[in-house]
Design brief:
74% of the residues lie in helices and 0% in strands.
Amino acid sequence: PDAPFRAIEKNCMQVFGHQQGSLTLCGSRLEQTEDGILSSLLRLTAPLQADAVFASLEQTFPQGPDPRTSTRILSSLAKRQELDMSLLVLSWHEENEHELNCFHYNAVIDACAKKGS
């Protein structure tokens, strides 16, 4: 019964490099990563340059983020009415052939709605 949790825990240890193996710590590190990428993206000044956005994402996620992390980032951008940034993040995913699903596209559609586009 513990096997799925141990696999997740092992994955967290590989991704975040901590030795405790704590899922709570893993979750908090994931939140810090998401907050960090949001902060770095939101610090970029207008007019937004795709190269700067792509470089920031590639530095944080050299192998691409998992789909859930991508959804949370796009949803957070939508809540902040960051339509242009959302579109650039989505473009980065498409350009790098990362896995995209209806949740990613819905988050960007939500950004459009909140921005009034």
